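FYI - complex with S-adenosylmethionine, inputs then prediction.
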Amino acid sequence: MPDRWRWIPSERPGMHFLGAPRQHEIALELGMGRGRCALQLFLQGATVLGVELAFERYRKALEAMERLAHRCPEELRVSFQNSKARLMGANTQTGFMEVRYGDFFQIVKDEEIAAATLIFLQVCLPRASWPSVRSFLEHCSPGCRVLTFQACGEQGGETRGPSSFPFRDIGSPVLACTWATAGHRFHCYERLDLEEERRILERSGLRPEHLPQTRKTCDERQGWLRAA
Ligand SMILES: C[S@@+](CC[C@H](N)C(=O)[O-])C[C@H]1O[C@@H](n2cnc3c(N)ncnc32)[C@H](O)[C@@H]1O
């Protein structure tokens, strides 16, 4: 995919911290706003699923996708369906960007979470939603990197023991983002691999059967990409 980074001057947070998208990166942008980060990730080669709850912002993301496709008809095309749209390279071997209107807790499927290699969750959620965030993230596959607005690990409070948030803390940098140029402190995690997770469970006297089923069978990547 050619470098179209220059078209969108603002930076996605974590660009320097998490690095540019890796090969076969599948990114979820949960609470994508106008889709600026989602577009940047796509233009850098990732396959992206962006979700937005506010219709006005979702509509702006659609407009941006349309503008891009209009500007580069040889390279990009856009298709629309009810409450979602997809921007694709003319070469179907490359990734795509899909945006959906709705609540990510409701409309992102477990297998899509399992397929993700990168999750951006730049949303300030009420404390009452934090357990739902942890349950959502439990569907991640080993190695998936997550960037959150609020701390989710031990320092985020309300953990239910060592197996309740099976992620390694990889740092809490202050990063520039589209809505706070001076930067915001984000929290970055990487999902443990299953062996590591088993060892933690054993240390706390639990057995591997206590792993939720989704964690044992989370390798659905190819399935989701084929269905896409
Ligand atoms: C701080 S803004 C971040 C926007 C975008 N990520 C960016 O960097 O430009 C958070 C966004 O999350 C959206 N949001 C909040 N709760 C959501 C939910 N449950 N599902 C989808 N979007 C949500 C809000 O409408 C808002 O646009």
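The chain is about 30% helix and 25% strand. The chain has one domain: 5-227.
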